[in-house]
Amino acid sequence: MARLARLRVNKDEVARFCRDLSSVLAYMDMLREVDTGDVEATVHVQALVNVYREDAPGPSLDVGEALRNAPRVHGNAFEVPLVMDED
Amino acid sequence: MLDTARKFRKEDISPLSHVEALLDRIRQSDLNAYVTLNGDNALVDAKAAAQSIDRGDEDLLAGLAIAVKDNISTRNLRTTCSSNMLRFFVPPYDAHVIGLLRERGAVILGKTNMDEFAMGSTTTTSAFGPTKNPWDVTKTPGGSSGGSAAAVAAGLCDGALGSDTGGSVRQPASFCGITGLKPTYGSVSRYGLVAFASSLDQIGPMGRSARDVAVLFDAIRGHDPRDSTSIPKRYGRISLDGLDLRGVRIGVPDPFFSEGLSRDVERSVRFAIALFAELGAETVAIDLPHIRYGVAVYYIVATAEASSNLARYDGVRYGLRDTENADLFEMYCETRAQGFGEEVKRRIMLGTYALSAGYYDAYYRKASQVRTLIAEDFRRAFKQCDMIAGPTVPVTAFGLDEMVDDPLGVYLLDTYTIPASLAGIPALSIPCGFGDSGLPVGLQLMAPAFMDELILGAAMTFQDRTRFHEVRP
Amino acid sequence: MSGYEAVIGLEVHAQLLTGSKIFCGCTTAFGLSPNTNTCPVCLGLPGTLPVLNREAVEFGIRLGLALNCTIESRNVFARKNYFYPDLPKGYQITQFESPLCTRGHLDIESGGAPKRIGIRRIHMEEDAGKNIHDESRGRSYIDFNRAGVPLLEIVSEPDMSTSGEAVAYLRELRLILVHLGISDGNMEQGSFRCDANISVRPAGAAGFGTRTELKNMNSFRNVQRALDHEIQRQSAIIDSGSSVVQETLSWNAILGATRPMRSKEESHDYRYFPDPDLVPVVIDEAWTATVRKNLPELPSARRRRFMDLYGLPTYDAEQLTQEPALADYYEQCVSLLDAPKDISNWVMSELTRVMHETGVDVRGLKITPAMLTDLISLVKAGTVSGLAAKDVITEMAATGRNASSIVEELGMAQVSDETELKALILGIIEANPGQVTKYRQGKTQLLGFFVGEAMKASKGRANPKVAGTIIRELLNP
After folding, report:
1. Which of A42, A61, A71 minimises the CB distance to B92?
2. Which residues, listed in sequence order, are joined to residue C119 by a DSSP beta bridge?
């Protein structure tokens, strides 16, 4: 799970998390006793549909603002360690 | 707030000196309610408000000083979500509600402390240290909007904005003896609210009275085309008259008064309900059969959405980055390990699990179905009553160090607040008494969707007849 | 190949020609300076939310109808969760369980016979940013201008059996996208991208072999090469008694080979769930009917019409419909001058030549349909020779002046006047007595020599037909 979520956990943390998560998950199991049958899953609590914007281009951020919080920048691009794979 | 607005106009005080005085109080306070003060800009805005008042501006909000929870984006003013990950993050844009407040002449006083990324009920998971409860500094103010609640209670602002996903406005309002509203989902824009659980999050106004909360709510509610889940509804000016309670049916749910509810809390809440009856309301016993699954549903749905919402914190475009690493994968893992606290990590992992292959149906989908059943419980209940009343939290404020090793125990404290979030209906917490330890007790009122003004009105009437909301820590 | 047949399915991503991105108002213009075309939404800043561009849905419906799909009246967006630096939110907004269109088909020609390729689904999603790699420094640079550009993903059924069929499918799909005006189909610039899923099995067998995924084919030729290479590779593996490994391969055009790619996620667990920030898209009959009514003529219909109405051969019909603007231009010409084959020849040869030479496309041409038909009329009337007309059209393309004025100014008018030509030819006959004798002795093919001389003497202006007739007359008393 940590790998999938890109979280580094050390050995002590693994133990603690396992314990905490197990107790929480055990609690969640109570949902099994609910008969949900064909009930529709809630994705949105309101019945809104078809919310759109018109296809009109608007202003973008100034490149300085876009990069303002960037940890590392190269010219006008965000710099990261080499990406090993390319699509 | 209304008093202050009046004083501005009678020239008893000027907005500038009002804001200066508040800033002084904040600097001297050791409640740790604020993360960042908007010092210089607040003074500039106060001066501007003063001028507009002189010119005859009748807007109640002009010159009033509002504290903003630090997960609401403020342009050029640091927004950290009380996380190491965003310790130095300065947004280039304002949240929709901030734009609305500025338009109305309100002064943004500063950003308040919170549980990291709004995950928590104590404000102890903040990367900037916990906020203290003004009533007893060894106690938690609640969470995750603990900073905003403490600021309101201690008179460190005129009003505040918090956010509520499973109770994060109402529970701290209850612990700090103030009034806080979680609006109908979709009535306040989420654009600019750093997402925790998208289908549950709402920005909520907090103040020392229901009328203060109503004034703030009036300013921030409304459709925003930048939020697809924002309801396209027009609102009139909000009413500040109390609700005539004669004939109003108040549902009292059995599940909210079962074991786990502290005796002293029950006492104050029942007293409040009795007072409503005295004022003409009719009480009706109701059942909400699926409510007891609420916490389980919430902690699956909310953590699942959160695990996805927090994936953007990868150190690439903003925020903390672990720069030691030459390897991208390692960089992600280290950055997120250092940037996030334990509670956030716990919830991300839980959420990731709930969505993962093989578990999606059993957890996320199942929980979403039970959520529908809970919403239906409310719909059925509202056929028998106009609003529902009960305690906001089973207990009063507990010690800052308590419950650190018991995450599940903390989650269960949200039992009464979670259901309204799951159903998207409005819910309000108002002070209704004091517990054995002298700490405030909160009464929660819930209404059908879009009936926010109903419970605000009922609260105004209650507060016209009681003094709980006027007691100061 | 040793008795194997291939089973090929294709996934195409087409960038849409909307004015703005799919979930925010940034423009979709290509080639801007890095990160100058971003906003809080497409950068994935904390607190931002997506709002759907209606035009993207419209384009999707248009394509769905063109590909004979069912338009799903209620469709939903989902989050595809994975980590990659060009993915700002740590998830891509796409459609998973309920896509915009399903169950369509596209007809191609395979070995002279029509073949129907099934379309499994079409859905909307957002594009990611672009990575530029700098191996020498061990760094990558990310540009988010492209993040949020709308895409339609078109997934075919695995109905193709050869690389030829795959390319035919891609060509026709691309043509449809261009004719519908929803994408510019540019493989080099990345607005039309293709991935393939391919397996082999003994010819005539029923089941499916293990399939591999092929990526990074950036031209039709490379698609062909890559698929052929992979069919070879898989066949050889099976022949040698081993099994094909299910993996993703990247095509290297320079080496002409594939290499395995390391997967983006250890486990491809994208943890799809419906996006709570976006509400469902409900498409009613009225909307679909309007799109259907306004659907531009599809390439296959247009080709058919060119062949039937104008009597053009298949080749001409295909060439003229490569681009809708060109086909429009052609038809405007035909409406002005009823000479469809002549016009087709001129458009395919000389007009195309001058477009290349002046670096414009049909929209940038200074030569209007009226101007072209004028020129063609002049040639047909004999006023200008075919040869001279090539120079005239070059001049027209450069200056925008009409044919008549150029012909007049440069004195290129073809000389057809018999008297004038007779005088000229008499002079040639006089000057070449030897050839005259040979001709009269039977070498009638020397007619060509005399006509050539007449052309030379008249600086190409002599009407060769008329000259030839006069020469024959004069040499055969």
Report:
1. A61
2. C104, C156
Q: Tell me how far the alpha carbon of residue B215 is from its chain's centroid.
A: 16
Give CA separation, A75 vs A51, B464, C36, C143, C435, in Å.
Answer: 38, 62, 12, 11, 76
Residue B239's pLDDT is: 94
CA gap B64, B108 in Å, rounded: 8
Domain boundaries, chain A: 11-74
Contacts of B347 in chain A (CB under 8 A): none
Report the pLDDT value the prediction gives residue C206, as an integer from 0 to 100. Answer: 86
Gap between the Cα atoms of B428 and B205, Å rounded = 10
- Indicate if the pLDDT at residue B187 is higher than 70: yes
Task: Measure in Å the smallest separation between the Cα of B139 and chain C Cα atoms.
Answer: 31
Residue C246 has φ and ψ, to the nearest 5°, of -75, 115
Cβ distance A52 to C54 less than 8 Å, yes or no, reads yes
Query: B144: cis peptide before it, omega within 30°?
Result: yes
Q: Where are chain C's structural domains?
A: 4-287, 299-409, 418-475
CB under 8 Å to B402, separation ≥6 — which residues? Answer: none
- The alpha-carbon gap from B355 to the nearest alpha carbon of chain C, in Å, equals 5
CA atoms within 13 A of residue C153's CA, in its CB half-sphere: 17
Q: Residue type for C167, please?
A: V
Rg (CA), chain B: 21
Under the banding of pLDDT at 50, 70 and 90, the label for residue A87 is: very low
Dig out the tokens for B289 from the structure: 């059969």
Considering only the top CATH level, what class is C418-475? Answer: mainly alpha
The residue ranking higher by pLDDT, B139 or B361, is B139
Verify whether residue B144 is a known catalytic residue.
yes
Could you tell me the pLDDT band of residue C477, with boundaries at 50, 70 and 90?
low
Whether B230 is catalytic: no
* Model pTM above 0.90: yes
> How far is it, in rounded angstroms, from Cα C247 to Cα C288?
39
Q: Is B356 among the residues known to form the active site?
A: no
Q: How many Cβ atoms from other residues are within 10 Å of residue C364's Cβ? A: 9
What distance in Å separates residue A58's CA from the closest CA in chain B? Answer: 13
B275 Cα to chain C: minimum distance (Å): 40
Is there a contact between C319 and C345 (Cβ–Cβ < 8 Å)?
A: no
**Contact predicate B371/A31, CB 8 Å:** no
Phi, psi at C237, each rounded to 5°: -60, -50
| DSSP assignments along B193-247, one per residue | BPPSSTTT-EEEEEESSHHHHHHHHHHHBS--TT-TTS------PPP-SPP--TT
- pLDDT single digits (tens) C166-204: 999 999 999 999 999 999 999 989 999 999 999 999 988
Cross-chain Cβ contact C90/B190 below 8 Å: no
What is the rounded distance in angstroms from the CA atom of residue B208 to the CA atom of residue B177? 8
Best of C51, C131, C271 to disrupt the B interface by mutation (most B CBs within 10 Å)?
A: C271
Q: What is the mean pLDDT of chain C?
A: 92
Asked if the model's pLDDT at residue C267 lies above 60, the reply is no
Active-site hit among B73, B121, B168, B189: B168
Q: What phi, psi does C186 have (nearest 5°)? A: -95, 105
Interface test with C, best of B82, B308, B327 (most C CBs within 10 A): B308
When scoring A54, A69, A79 by the number of chain B Cβ atoms within 10 A, the one with the most, hence best to mutate, is A69
Here the tokens at position B401 are 């160090």
Nearest chain A residue to C128, by CA: A87
* Touching partners of B (3+ C-beta pairs < 8 Å): A, C
Q: Is the Cβ–Cβ distance between C233 and C269 less than 8 Å?
A: no
How many Å apart are CA B228 and CA B186, to the nearest integer? 9
> Which one of B14, B121, B126, B144 is the catalytic residue?
B144
Instruction: Tell me how far apart the alpha carbons of residues C360 and B334 are, in angstroms, rounded to a whole number.
Output: 52
**Token pair 């298949």: residue:** C314
Residue C427 in tokens: 């002079």
